[in-house]
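Here is one chain, start to finish.
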Amino acid sequence: MTAIALTIAGSDPSGGAGIQADLKTFSALGVYGASVITALTAQNTRGVDGIHDVPPEFVARQIDSVFSDLAVNAVKIGMLSQPAIIAAVAAGLDRHGARNVVLDPVMIAASGAALLVPEAVETLRRVLVPKALLVTPNLPEAAALLGEDVAQTDPAVLGQAERIRALGPRAVLIKGGHADGAESVDVLLDGEGFARFASPRVATRNTHGTGCTLSSAVAAGLAKGLSLREAIASAKRYVSAAIAASDTLRIGHGHGPVHHFHGLWTA
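Its structure:
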């Protein structure tokens, strides 16, 4: 049977993040991608110029259309900017018994633009985080979910992972891309304990869509039947290679995208 992953997220017309990055990732990893669009954005590699939210009832209709026809193996959730949209997505997951839910709590774009209104953070924490198999915040997002300062030390990161997991998800992966050091280290806390996923840090400004790509790569692995830890390890390798190859692309004038098809395109 064909592996199918669904992304529920916002659209990026410049193609580097959001729905577009998710579908590219699914395709690159051999998974059929479906999508539910939660917001239209006007953005490019230099920043976000506007956000137009999709009405919650139409988000729900998209979810029902996909699940009523497709056998969805995994779900990746990205940008949900308003409390009512978060509630609509949570209800849709319940209606259809969605499994292998990977939640990327998108709050800020690579350019620094806010993608989640402040009052939506509590709704996200209370309504959607407990439904996730895996939550994948970066360091600033982990702090925002908890209402704390950004973790600066390894013990602080571990403590935040424990407090986020206490909110209800089965596992938490805190991404270390915003930290310093020769390695980019992501820390997982699941039912087996802590695990560390490290890769060499790449000196590039082309980081647009990195978080979207990692979470969708994890969802792709889960859709293909990998265990959670196997899916994370596979996703980390894929994203690291996509970042390393990003400078071979010449896209835009700001934070360019990672190279989703680095393993498929010829030079």
